[in-house]
Amino acid sequence: MAALPTPSASRSRGAAFAGATGRTGASQKSARTALAARGGEERDVEMSEVASWTGLTPGKEYRLQTMSIEEVAENTSTIRSLDWDRDRFDIEFRLERGTTYNSYIIKGAEKTALIDTSHEKFEELYTAALRKELDLGSLDYLIVSHTEPDHSGLIGKVLDLAAAQGNEKLEVIGSKMCIAYLQNLVFQPFKNRVVQNGVQLDLGGGHNLEFVIAPNLHWPDTMFTFDHKTGILFTCDAFGMHYCSDEPEDVEGVKELLPHYATYYDCLMKPNARSVLTALKKIQDFDLKVVATGHGPMLSQNLDTFVEYYRSWSEKATAKIGPCVAVFWVSHFGESERLAQLFAHGLTSCGVNVEMHDLNAVDALEIMECVGRNQIIAFTAPPRETQAATNIGSLVANLKPKKHQFVVLDSCEDAQEPVALLRSRMLKADIPEALPAMEVKTRPITTQVLHSFEEAGMQMGKKLSQKSKAAAAKSQDKDLSKALGRLASSLYIVTAKKAGVRHAMVASWVTPASSKPLGVSVTIAKERAMEPLLRIGDTFSLNILEEGKPQTLQVMKHFLQRFAPGVDRLEGVDHIEGSNGAAILRSACAYLECKMISRMDAGDHWVGSVAIWEFQVDPTRGLKHEVLEPLEEP
């Protein structure tokens, strides 16, 4: 990770911060007004200077800033680490509005608690803000919602700073798994307390904190904290979204925030929908006034609406509508979590039920219950001679040859059990393989590898949903099907390149949509491997093929074949690279360079509204292409 430049120490309360947002100091007034809208007086908002960071995409600078708000509720303040320009979390998670990492401080009449810290790259900014908000020498509790690095990256630093000020009473509060994880992350002894569901911690002055153990949202060590004084539920990842703005609360409204909220749920929470419903039951008797999340705005203005979305989405995701897949991963080990999450996201994109478990945290009884309700068991390779490796034995013992199938996923770590050995162990137990093992031969891990794991999940999901689709097709009106089959259509090759991954697919459902600006609509099946590359804001090329030409038949035959996950569809195909990075086929008679402006959910497909900014007819003849006027996105 690249070192952060030291930001300027000078900061002023309520100062303008146009350098970060392109806005004026009036934005800070709007933040204070939003907080005051619930009946309190205006709160002070303090913005740091902007620092830059270059540790994600080589050559690109990312703006970092902290936003400190003195009181978001009675005796409660927040430090929001603003990652203005973060543009992705892996291949499937394109960020349109950056993200935030939120930390909270509660000052009771007798005790003070800090809830979560921040990402390690915010060390200079966050510690400067923290020192101004509280005296680390008198901090009583550090409450850790969970140990994923983007929230726990500065725990060790906070412990060091407190110790340097002679603080010997500071106690770390967390779930059993959380404390166990921290002992392997923080290389120093620290005072700690493991809490169970329903345990309370009195800070004085009515700030009585109650803890809710909420495993698998989305890590096994997750814990919520509810303050009975203010009605605030601190949830870390749950109910969050990757959305960075100068508004600390959800004042932008549901229409603006819902796409970001839904994407976050789909990528991180949907595979754990059962755990979402369990957590909702645990908090149903709380008098909730605000949900204070670890990412994005606090939910206050539209709290009931956003919570109800989680409930309805999770009920739909857990409905018994088809086959179920269990995915086991290993926390804090290689690329296990990231690759397992991508594989699970590919499955849920196809409407397959998924539940996820950490092999470090799950016990033998939970394994038995999980295997009983799932037909396919996917697991990442665990480290040798560990509890996670022992739990593989429990899996083998509970799997039945005629009921279950398995998939082995690489963790991309030298200390792991070999993928081939794990696969052989399952086959010797007569458990059939649902999908060839996902073994990675190269290092470091590329975006192409990440995409291949999501594509593998999609392929499995498509296979598992074939029976239900076939049944649905039989129930359709045959005359209607014939009529739809006569609608005019042609064949196109859609190509795209995103985050280093290039891809291509055959498309037939392409229709003119508008003349000003020039645009078309494209329909993409949800289980297509191209789908993660065709989300809002992504660019691609539409290659138009000429009917009856031998080269057209040859190209179509190539792209219609079955490809293994991660295989480069363009290998061996004669093409050039367009201005947007997507391939232009030399066999095409014309092509359009496009940008996805919006998408609409249409059942098992997405219907995308596409704007065209450039086109060319027969590039092999060197004809001049046309460049259209720049488009204004709605």
Automatic annotation (TrEMBL):
Key words of the record = Electron transport, Iron, Metal-binding, Transport
One Pfam family this chain carries?
Flavin_Reduct
**Domain Metallo-beta-lactamase: from-to ranges:** 100-295
Q: Spell out the residue ranges making up region: Disordered.
A: 1-41
Instruction: Work out whether the entry's keyword set contains Secreted.
Output: no
- Please tell me whether the keyword Iron is annotated for this protein: yes
Q: Name one GO molecular function term.
A: FMN binding
| InterPro entries, alphabetized | Flavin_Rdtase-like_dom, Flavoprotein-like_sf, Metallo-B-lactamas, NADH_oxidoreductase_modular, ODP_dom, RibonucZ/Hydroxyglut_hydro, Split_barrel_FMN-bd
Q: Where is the composition biased (Low complexity)?
A: 8-27
Where does the Flavin reductase like domain start and stop, copy by copy?
484-625
Supply the SUPFAM superfamilies for this chain: Flavoproteins (SSF52218), FMN-binding split barrel (SSF50475), Metallo-hydrolase/oxidoreductase (SSF56281)
Q: What is this protein's name?
A: Dfa3 protein
Could you tell me which species this protein originates from? Symbiodinium pilosum
The record's gene field reads dfa3
